[in-house]
Specification:
Elements: E1 9-12, H1 17-28, E2 36-40, H2 43-51, H3 61-69, H4 99-111
Parallel strand pairs: 1-2
Length: about 120
């Protein structure tokens, strides 16, 4: 864990919920500042930057699972660091019986840990 502040990061912008959660979680384990090379508004853009080498980041596992499975990125586990977020599903009431939306929600529930 001592190496965390020594790496160079590409992170989401400070106002994003993901970054706010990350900053709070790091503060809880005594890390108040990280050397940030760049703040980016898109998780996909961060993944592309990581695939080119040079930086590290904190991203949701589901956002990088494909790149990790393909050997393009490497997962670094940090003992004692667990970032938890609540993700919500929102949709219009006018279209509650949409089979495509129901299939998508079913897929999310199947692949993402709940509770």
């Amino acid at each position: 864990m001592a190496e965390i502040p020594e790496l160079t990061y590409v992170l989401r912008e400070r106002e994003s919920s993901m970054r706010i959660t990350l900053d709070r979680t790091l503060a809880d384990i005594g890390i108040s500042e990280l050397p940030v090379a760049m703040e980016v508004g898109s998780t996909d853009t961060i993944v592309e930057m990581l695939e080119r080498g040079r930086h590290v980041s904190f991203l949701p596992r589901f956002a990088v699972r494909g790149a990790i499975d393909a050997g393009e990125l490497h997962l670094i586990r940090i003992e004692g660091l667990r970032i938890m977020r609540t993700l919500w599903i929102a949709r219009t009431r006018a279209n509650l019986d949409n089979p495509v939306a129901e299939a998508f929600i079913g897929l999310l529930r199947e692949r993402l840990p709940i509770g």
